[in-house]
Amino acid sequence: MYLFNQLQTGLIFFLLFGLTSITTLSEDADDPVFAENIIWHDLVTPDIYQSKAFYEAVFGWELRVIEGNGLRMGTFYSGGKPVAGVLEVPKANTAVWVKAIVISQMDERVAQAKRQGGKVLLPQAEIMGRGVQTVLESSSGEEFSFIVIKGESEMSAIEAEGENRWLWSELWSDNPEESGVFYKGVFGVTIDDKSNGGRPYWVFMSGGKPLAGMIQNPITNQGTQWVPYVQSSDPTGTVEKAEDAGAFVVLQPSPEVRNGKVGVFQDPQGALLCVQNKN
Asked: In this protein, which residues make up the domain named VOC (predicted)?
């Protein structure tokens, strides 16, 4: 509900539609589930320049900001390649990462989400350099977006692997059963139980490929949300950088949790992020 409350201010709506026009796409192409799992996230933040300073210090990401009519948005780059989008909402109480799911058939996927109890928070809008995007809320309350890549999109240049690139996405769900029903209904995915050592863990699968994970939400009072993972060859060092830059450390890397290869923190504006060494 966090992003929904902020959308009520009309700021993001004006931001997107003030720059581009509404577009409806044809539905004549096959729709690969999660578009071969292209990973993209958008950061909604109350202060775009504070976020810029933080992510530059921690990951070396470069933020290119677009300003107009008192509004700000931008794109993070790593090594010249796009990594994530950023939207500034000054009235927001906290920042949040919103998972984007790349698809090819917008209207049908939106209709399926609605049939499963989801709702549209932001209607379709064409985003310069990206494509057509719409923001939704699932039946469990977490926000996510659909993107249809269109024309000369920067997203075609995304690098799937590498240091300080997106590695994985996890749904931290207050009700994994309800969340599973929703995403199975929208995408036709299967859910594999990968629980180990008494720790429940589920993986969304399609065609034998893992798409994203799901856990019982370990954090109270924040609601169900998508949490992104960034590849780090040195999770301990990255968490230390984040703490030095003002982050609140939720989980220090330790041998008891995924062999010490994972750290979790909230950026200074409150957005949750995980770092992990996949090797």
From this structure: 165-278
> CATH number of the domain that 88 lies in?
3.10.180.10
pLDDT value, residue 243: 98
DSSP classification of residue 247 = P
Residue in the structure block whose two tokens are 């509004």: 71
Three-state secondary structure call for residue 125: strand
Amino acid 45: pLDDT? 94
In terms of residue numbers, what domain contains 195?
A: 166-276
Phi, psi of 3 (to 5 degrees): -65, -35
Average pLDDT over the chain reads 82
Q: Distance between CA atoms of 87 and 133, rounded to whole angstroms?
A: 13
How many structural domains compose the chain? 2
On whether both 53 and 150 belong to a single domain, the answer is yes
| Cβ pair 261, 235 in contact under 8 A | yes
Beta strand ranges found along 150-247 (DSSP E): 166-173, 190-193, 202-206, 209-216, 225-231
Q: Residue 69: pLDDT above 80?
A: no
Q: What is the pLDDT of residues 178-214, one digit of tens each?
A: 999 999 999 888 999 988 777 899 999 988 888 899 9
Cβ contact 214:241 at 8 Å: no
Q: Could you tell me if 48 and 66 are in contact, meaning their C-beta atoms sit under 8 angstroms apart?
A: no
Specify whether 143 is located in the same domain as 177.
no
